[in-house]
Design brief:
Distance between the termini of chain B: 45 Å
GO molecular function (chain B): 2 iron, 2 sulfur cluster binding; 4 iron, 4 sulfur cluster binding; formate dehydrogenase (NAD+) activity; metal ion binding; molybdopterin cofactor binding; NADH dehydrogenase activity
Mean pLDDT of chain B: 93
GO biological process, one term (chain B): respiratory electron transport chain
CATH architecture of the largest domain in chain B: 3-Layer(aba) Sandwich
Structural class of chain A: mainly alpha
Oligomer: heterodimer
Order of helices and strands of chain A: HHHH
Distance between the termini of chain A: 18 Å
Shape of chain B: globular
Number of helices of chain B: 29
Low-confidence stretches of chain A: none
CATH class of the largest domain in chain B: Alpha Beta
Largest interface: A-B, 21 and 31 residues
Number of strands of chain B: 38
Organism (chain B): Szabonella alba
Family (chain B): In the C-terminal section; belongs to the prokaryotic molybdopterin-containing oxidoreductase family.
Mean pLDDT of chain A: 95
Number of strands of chain A: 0
Radius of gyration of chain A: 11 Å
Low-confidence stretches of chain B: 1-5
Protein name (chain B): Formate dehydrogenase subunit alpha
CATH topology of the largest domain in chain B: Rossmann fold
């Protein structure tokens, strides 16, 4: 699956949770990824992260590390 | 006519029901107690006494014009009309005596004097109230001469040919009647014969009161008076008539008559069932001769539609017998080959071995299913069960992915459940109705009629929509506020409304404190109160004047019962889920939840969107919206199904297509959906399908997706199967088999055959057993079974031990999740932005006469109203581009381009263009992009940056596509 699309989707999710109150935004992004992304998508995101995670914003990156 | 299914009282009681305090009176010596406000006519009918009538019918208010229903009442003078006389305590009524009989005969004699007596050859023979009443009052002679309007326009002095008296010699010197008006047969579904009109005005009143279109009137005086479709030059087709059929249903004679009855004769049996078009879920009587469907008549006891219908449900059923229907299974090795008709065994064996082979070669998760919102709950349940229990993965998704998946997420997060909060009756008690991103006039017409009735009674309307839709303004109502926002700015508008409500202190604090999470509210109030969320600050980006937005917010917050109805204009955005949360926030802020007249109501696009979601079609949820990660929930199904379930979510439709393009997803069973036409970015969908090695399409027709299929399993229509649909108000309605499936099997049987071919041991013999399994596994359906549905007609979930009668209103004493949860809704501009190359924004939608991808409605006479998709362009944008009305134009985005004809209108704002997606020759979705909602991947259909320019004809892509489709649809004859 195209890393560009996964990065874009992960960043969209992070953008939403960044606006939410609290200090656990990364956990909530990670939970969303676990709840709604098929394991192959999460694996592809992890692989992209392992290669540097180009394009991932900070919160998405932090969340991807927690998935 | 006998109703074989439900022995419900279908009599016409003459006048509508009332709900006053009980009143007891005596009618013909029978004591009867009825609600206050009830007419004497209805009270008599309820007591089993029939008073003759012509102008009265219980679908419209009493009119008192025919004088056939006169009665005598002790202590009152004269002979009042029983239809317009309300009951009173102790009233003593007499409906039959010599005086009344004489009066009624006199009235009937006058009516008959102006009515052709061609009863034996009349299309209403046997179903004519005038005929019935002539018998009831004992009419035996007519002393008056025949009305002039029956004479032939030929001017030869002859009567109308159909008149039984036409054989008589015309009076000497009679030159015929130049005013004779022939039958109007312009409408594809019904005829209008002025000669048969008795001027009872039932059709006029039905058009006004029930439908709300006001297309009909009475013109002329005396013998010249007749029903008219507006101006003298208007015929039925050219008029404002929307062909809902209410007038035809109301007509007591053959004046307004279904063409199908003219052709096929009066029906002799009927079956109650549920419409398979939009999410209103209207109940219909399918009326037949043998297994020949004669007509569909809206059922008065249907709780969603209350006896009303639209042009689709009422008339557009011809697709079921259309020549394009595929009735035999077909297979092919590759999509460049023609189809081969084969036996069911061969087709299923081929499909099963291919799918199992793919799993062996590429892994268990390399195949999946798409369930359909057009199919029944039982069928949908089986398809997701096929994925989970037979394929062994959670790769199941539904077309709700591309429409209301953000509703599931947004309402789930805020209220705790994914469903509308009200029943449709609730709108009758609304004071302010806010419609956001929906055009019920076109998409949910029967609900629109009920809403418009309330608006005519004084309720206020707010419409938030980029277009000035038909919902904004209609006969005798106009939206108090239309906020024509720029596409993609829903969140900013909804949040700005909340800003007004919070900063002006208009919120319902006691409701919030009692019913909602106070801490979450504090965060939310602090957020929305920020100046950046004020209408003045957001005006530049939304295009909505701040003053209008403030006024609308104040009206919603302070105008009494405030109800929100919303559609795909809310959900199909990159922030679709956020807008749904914003809408829920507004309802909680103002306490507009948990009682009649208020609430948050997603208008579901297709008939069973709600049900498909309820049934566990989504890849992360088992039936009843329970996440697959829950071991306890999985255990319920594992013990019943005897398999271990995958605890991880599966692929959603866009993910399946992405994975297919990447080479990881290889097989798909697609039931009742046409993803190639309906899903965004057609080229990407085509690439995904082309990359799969086994695509099984289960459908009525060789749809666009079937061009990429290897197996075609012919499906059954809603008329040919048993099951249930769940409409937008969570109402579970029975779908009943009206005739045998022309393809040989009901759809649930075909899924079962495929499962068995793949090794499952399913043994259902009736959909009732599937519903029993749903009830046994899904708490919100625990009390539902077919026996109960037969008894009650329908029920709204949750229906279980706690709510054995079902749940018309949700969140009455508390939210399903406990405390209602306010969620911060930060506006984030979509990445899809207009610019120099693509300076306009395209938004898409639907039209009244067509439905979704048009697979059904394009195969009916509805094409007379919409035979192609057209592009709405604002005059300013058209002038800049040199585009005139009706010109071919090229519509291009970064995804692709197509051509279609333009229509110039200020319904759209400058900078915005609009089209529908009903026709595959246009393929509007070749333009839309792969951007989607952040939470659910629901596509962003409603915002695409485009350019429009003059064109000479079809685009290269359209020509290539048409050529490929023609090749893909070749069918070899079956082997001998």
């Amino acid at each position: 699956m195209s890393p560009d699309k996964l990065v874009r989707m992960a960043n969209q999710i992070a953008t939403f949770f960044r606006s939410q109150p609290g200090t656990d935004q990364a956990d909530r992004v990670a939970a969303h990824l676990r709840d709604f992304w098929d394991p192959s998508m999460r694996a592809a995101l992890a692989a992209h992260l392992a290669k540097g995670g180009e394009g991932l914003d900070d919160l998405a990156r932090e969340a991807a590390q927690k998935v | 006519m006998k109703d074989f299914i439900i022995p419900t009282d279908d009599r016409d009681l003459g006048t509508p029901a009332r709900d006053g305090a009980p009143v007891t009176l005596s009618i013909d010596g029978v004591e009867v107690t009825v609600p206050g406000g009830t007419s004497v006519m209805r009270a008599a009918a309820l007591a089993g006494l029939t008073i003759p009538k012509l102008c009265a019918t219980d679908n419209v208010e009493a009119f008192g014009s025919c004088r056939l229903c006169v009665v005598e009442i002790e202590g009152r003078r004269g002979t009042p009309a029983s239809c317009t006389t309300p009951v009173a305590p102790g009233m003593v009524v007499q409906t039959q005596n010599d005086k009344l009989r004489k009066l009624r005969r006199g009235v009937m004699e006058l009516y008959i004097s102006d009515h052709p007596l061609d009863c034996l050859t009349c299309s209403a023979n046997g179903d004519c109230e005038l005929q019935d009443m002539a018998g009831a009052v004992g009419l035996r002679d007519v002393r008056y001469s025949t009305g002039a309007n029956h004479y032939s326009a030929a001017g030869n002095g002859m009567l109308t040919p159909r008149d039984a008296r036409a054989t008589r010699t015309a009076p000497a010197g009679d030159l015929g009647n130049p005013n004779y008006i022939p039958k109007d047969e312009s409408n594809p579904y019904f005829t209008y014969d002025p000669a048969k009109c008795i001027v009872c005005s039932r059709c006029v009143r039905a058009c006004e009161e029930v439908q709300g279109t006001f297309a009909l009137t009475i013109e002329g005086r005396g013998f010249d008076s007749r029903v008219s479709f507006g101006a003298k030059t208007d015929d039925a087709l050219a008029s404002d008539c929307v062909s809902c059929g209410a007038c035809v249903q109301a007509c007591p004679t053959a004046t307004l008559q279904e063409k199908s009855v003219v052709e096929l004769g009066t029906p002799t049996r009927s079956v109650i069932t549920t419409c398979a078009y939009c999410g209103v879920g209207c109940s219909f009587k399918a009326e037949l001769n043998g297994d020949q469907l004669v007509r569909m008549v809206p059922w008065k006891h249907g709780k969603a539609n209350r006896g009303h219908s639209c042009v689709k449900g009422r008339f557009a059923y011809g697709y079921a017998s259309h020549k394009d229907r595929i009735l035999n299974p077909m297979i092919r090795d590759s999509i460049d080959q023609p189809w081969r008709e084969v036996s069911w065994d061969e087709a299923l064996g081929f499909a099963a071995s291919r799918m199992r082979g793919l799993q062996e070669k590429y892994g268990r998760k390399s195949i999946g299913v798409i369930t359909s919102s057009r199919c029944t709950n039982e069928e949908t349940y089986l398809v997701q069960k096929l994925a989970r229990a037979v394929f062994g993965n959670n790769n199941t998704d539904t077309c709700a992915r591309v429409c209301h998946s953000p509703t599931g997420y947004g309402l789930g997060q805020t209220f705790g459940t994914s469903a509308g909060t009200q029943d449709f009756d609730s709108v009758e008690q609304s004071d302010v109705i806010m419609v956001i991103g929906a055009n019920p006039h076109a998409g949910h017409p029967v609900f629109a009629s009920r809403m418009k009735k309330r608006l005519r009674a004084g309720a206020k309307l707010i419409v938030i929509d980029p277009r000035r839709t038909e919902t904004v303004e209609g006969p005798h109502y106009r939206a108090a506020h239309h906020l024509p926002l720029r596409p993609g700015t829903n969140v900013a508008v909804v949040t700005a409304m909340a800003h007004v409500i919070v900063t002006e202190g208009l919120m319902n604090e006691s409701f919030i404190r009692e019913r909602c999470d106070w801490d979450e509210f504090q965060h939310y109030a602090e957020f929305v109160g920020q100046p950046k969320n004020s209408p003045e600050a957001t005006e530049m980006l939304t295009g909505v004047p701040a003053a209008d937005l403030r006024a609308a917010a104040r009206l919603y917050a302070t105008g009494g019962n405030g109800a929100i109805y919303y559609g795909l204009g809310v959900t199909e955005h990159s922030q679709g889920s956020t807008t749904v949360m914003g809408i829920a926030n507004l309802a909680m802020l103002t306490g507009n939840i948990g009682r009649q007249g208020v609430g948050v109501n997603p208008l579901r696009g297709q008939n069973n969107v709600q049900g498909a979601c309820d049934m566990g079609s989504f890849p992360h949820e088992l039936p009843g919206y329970r996440h697959v990660k829950g071991a306890e929930v999985r255990a319920v199904f594992e013990s019943l199904w005897g398999v271990e379930l995958d605890p991880e979510p599966g692929l959603r439709i866009p993910n399946m297509l992405d994975a297919a393009v990447s080479g990881n997803f290889k097989g798909l069973y697609c039931q009742g959906e046409d993803i190639l036409q309906s899903d965004p970015d057609t080229k990407h969908v085509a690439a995904g399908l082309a990359a799969m090695e086994c695509v099984i399409v289960h459908d009525l027709f060789l749809n666009e997706t079937a061009n990429y299929a290897h197996v075609f399993l012919p499906g059954s229509t809603f008329l040919e199967k048993d099951g249930t649909f769940t409409n937008a108000e969570r109402r579970i309605n029975r779908v009943r088999r009206v005739m045998a499936p022309r393809n040989g099997y009901e759809d649930w049987e075909i899924t079962q055959l495929l499962a068995r071919a793949m090794g499952a041991n399913w043994g259902y013999t009736h959909p009732a057993q599937i519903m029993d399994e749903i009830a046994a596994t899904t708490p919100s359906f625990a009390g539902v079974d077919y026996a109960m549905l037969e008894e009650k007609g329908s029920v709204q979930w949750p229906c279980n031990e706690k709510s054995p009668e079902g749940t018309p209103l949700m969140h009455v004493d508390g939210f399903v999740r406990g405390k209602g949860r306010f969620i911060v809704t930060e506006y984030v501009a979509t990445d899809e932005r207009s610019g120099p190359r693509y300076p306009l924004l395209l938004t898409t939608g639907r039209i009244l006469s067509q439905y979704n991808v048009g697979a059904q409605t394009r195969r009916t006479a509805n094409v007379v109203w919409h035979d192609q998709d057209v592009l709405e362009v604002h005059p300013h944008d058209a002038e800049q581009r040199g585009i005139n009305e009706g010109d071919w134009v090229k519509l291009a985005s970064r995804s692709g381009e197509t051509t279609l004809r333009a229509t110039i209108t200020d319904k759209v704002s400058p900078g915005v263009v609009y089209t529908t997606f009903h026709h595959p020759t246009t393929q509007a979705n070749v333009i839309t992009t792969d951007f989607s909602d952040w939470a659910t991947n629901c596509p962003e259909y409603k915002v695409t940056a485009v350019q429009v320019s003059p064109s000479n004809g079809p685009s290269e892509w359209q020509e290539d596509y048409a050529a490929q489709a023609a090749l893909a649809r070749r069918i070899l004859p079956a082997a001998e």
